[in-house]
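Example record

One chain of 452 residues, shown exactly as stored in the release files.
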Amino acid sequence: MDRVRVLAGHLGVSNHQGPLDEASGAQLQREATLATTNYEGFPYAQTMANFPPAVHDVFLFDELLSPEEKDIRYRTRAFMEKEIAPIIANYWERAAFPFEVVPNLAKLNLGGANLAGYGCPGQSVIGAAMAVVEIARVDASMSTFLMVHNSLCMLTLGLLGSEEQKRELLPDMAALKLIGAWGLTEPSNGSDAAALQTTARKVNGGWVLNGQKRWIGNATFADVIVIWARSSETKQVNAFVVRKGARGLRTSKIENKIALRVVQNADIFLDDCFVADSARLPGVTSFKDTNKVLAISRIMVAWQPVGIACGVFDMCKRYVDERVQFGAALGSFQLVQEKLARMLANVQAMFLMCWRLSKLYEEGKMTHELASTTKAWTTLRGREVVSLGRELLGGNGVVSDFLVAKAFGDMEAIYTYEGTYEVNVLVAGRGITGKAAFKAAPARKQPTSVQA
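Predicted structure tokens for this chain:
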């Protein structure tokens, strides 16, 4: 205890000179520990660099998982806490991607997720979701990076690509030796993706692509990009594999984001970009084929807020235990406890809703309306969790080193992508009423006034 007193004195923690009682001794021990795990300016609570223990699973949802799913969850959690948590806030601030962690990430054998064969692990939907949750718990950007690669690009190739495309691309993509991107969204068509304007013109030996894509994750460095384009002959939507460095392909990073800053989103410009006939995905004959991919990817996006909310709750629980004001830990105050209780209840409900959606998919009972309902609802509740977390951390709630500020910004992007909240609830509303409300009702004709 004397050693702790000396250390605390050096840290300016206390001027107490008398015998240490149990309470003050515990306080000194806590503050001395905090001083070794924080930056110099705030030695009173730990940052995310030393990630908090997972205390969010109070309903014991872990017991719903198979041994394989638990293995994925805990391997991923250990990697994220050890290798990503200490460095990621710095990358988030610089809007840079940590390429050096990819080789160790590849060792987790997460590449390919649900796909089987071609070097892919063939995970269950829940197993793939546990990886998403545990990655998002520490950093939503890294979960988006892997989700774009796995659940959009690789899944499209696996479901709709040719045998030749699968054999050539999927093994190296599963090993993260090749990274994928997926180009559907355009500047003129966000929610109304079916109205895409990028064109594919048939020429001798291949196709010429022209158009622009926007918000394409991983696009600045992706080796393989699946581009969705409309055939100038049939007017139907097709999909094509465009390789890094292809003539006529140019990408430009989207700067100054406040969310998912580690994700390298880009504008893609296709200017007479030629691809061979072998680059066309034979399983795509119309825009409806995107639904085969989005059915799974939307499940994974619905799980992302679960992971973010778990991380924020875990961080806040430790913070209010460590942070002392008015002579007591913040966690001893009633208003703080109310916020924690609300956050924790949301986490439980979000997890259970996503778990059930995933099971319905595996049983062949999931509908697009159910997927949209879940994605809309978890992002809405996730928004509440991160907002409450921001309040609990006070000023540190706007500092990315303490996780919550970073998660607060990241949640805004997830609330919008893979269908905005509004579009997803309209899909849900269509399922309830049988009536689509995506377009404004036609204006009614004004009655002609009759003069007496």
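Notes: DSSP finds 13 helices and eleven strands in the chain.
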